[in-house]
Amino acid sequence: MAPAQLREAALFQQALQHERVAEDPLTPPEPLEARMLADSPGQWHAIFGARDASGAMVGYSLVAWQKNDPGNQHLRWCEVAVAPAHRRRGLGRALLRRAVHAVADQGDDLVFMGQVTDRIPASEGFARAIGATPGLEMKTNQLDLASVDRAKVNAWAQRAPAGYRLDRVDGPVPAALLRPYIESSSGMNDAPRGDLKMDDWELNEEQIRDRESWQAQAGVERWLIVAVHDATGAGAGFTEVTYDPRVSHLIWQQGTAVIDAHRGHGLGLWMKAVMLKRILEERTKARFIRTGNANTNAQMLAINTQLGFRPAWSSALWQLTLAEARKATGLERAGATA
Fold first, then answer.
1. Selection from 313, 338, 11, 268 nearest residue 137 by Cα
2. Of the candidates 156, 196, 185, 175, the residue with the CA atom closest to the CA atom of residue 276
3. Is the pLDDT of residue 2 over 60?
4. What is the DSSP string of 308-329?
5. Which residues on neighbouring strands pair with residue 239, listed in sequence order?
């Protein structure tokens, strides 16, 4: 992509982000460009843009496939975005048609999955119009770091359950911690999935290294904590956050899980309190931590509420089978082209 086109795409993304979260400072174009350029061998993706009569960018669609996730080979992440002034003109459906056509040779059992947010009401209307259905209701919860009770966080961080230790990773996961991390990550499969056509997530070293490579290319820093059972060396739980120094006000809480055999010891709160204590001490420019939670994930919601997280906006993961997508875009006839 030429530098001028890359900057144009980044500014379009910037405008869409501002529409969703108008209270945030504008994201600089440079980190958005870096994320668009970052790549990993384990992911396939196709991106399509739309321009108006003047040549200005007014929309895009993206379809992506995590090739090295053996448990969900049928899933295709899909995004369709149209500038506000160009909505309700059929452009979204035309962009979706491009994405559908791009996966025409990848099988007939595919399921498109994407996120709809109440911050952009038109997104739900479009999802319904193309025949998509909600699979999992979620909310984005936010922690205002200025309001954190540091004394409580410090106390929770010191409540180390007997028989466990926390291993901290700031860069690539070391070889000795790969097995405990993968074991701990399996706890994510216990999180609610609602009606999503999603199978268990099977994390492996290839996925880990791909993600680390993408983050390094994009300039995203990841902090990881793994809880390890001392007696066996087994992974008991994990929590991780990501941060882009160029978007200094915001930290994203990524996955947190404790596997079933090690629940009931307070590992979840301990790990998250230790992480939060470090954030308060070292990420002094950050204003918020945000995280997505299923509305039915009572245990994690309770921990987040205890730490001070509050609901910021609602969203949902919607899904659309390939057959439904073909019908919605006029590609259901054999031999139809984009």
1. 313
2. 156
3. yes
4. T-EEEEEEEEEEEEHHHHHHHH
5. 225, 256
